[in-house]
Every structure is written in structure tokens, then in C-alpha cells.
Amino acid sequence: MKKTLLLLTFAIVCCTASFAQQFTVATYNMRNDNASNDDSLRGNGWKQRLPVIAKLITVS
After folding, report:
1. pLDDT tens per residue, range 9-44
2. Are 4 and 11 in contact (CB under 8 A)?
3. Burial (CB count within 10 angstroms: exposed 0-12, middle 13-18, buried 19+), residue 5
């Protein structure tokens, strides 16, 4: 019984590993374009961040 259970567990682990896929996860601090704060004046506004974020999201 133990041998069968061990063999079944080994087979499941091998099958699971063969279907594994690699993926990349990223986060980015996106901000809204709020005119009431001075982020855009300091170079940290949405218009400055948009091209950088668009390049990160673009699928290659």
C-alpha cells in the first residue's frame, strides 16, 4: 500500500512539473493626472509616466 501511494505521488509530481510554465509579474506605481497637485511640475506626473508604462505593457 505504501509503495503504491509513493508511486502515485511521484507520478503526480512528475506530471505537474512537466506542465509548468514560466511567467513574469511586475507592478508599477501608476498615478492619475491630477491638476491639483504639483507632480507634473516635478517631472512625476502621468504625462511623464505614460510612455514608460506603455513600453512595459507592450507585448513583444
Report:
1. 988 888 766 666 777 777 777 667 777 777 778 877
2. no
3. exposed
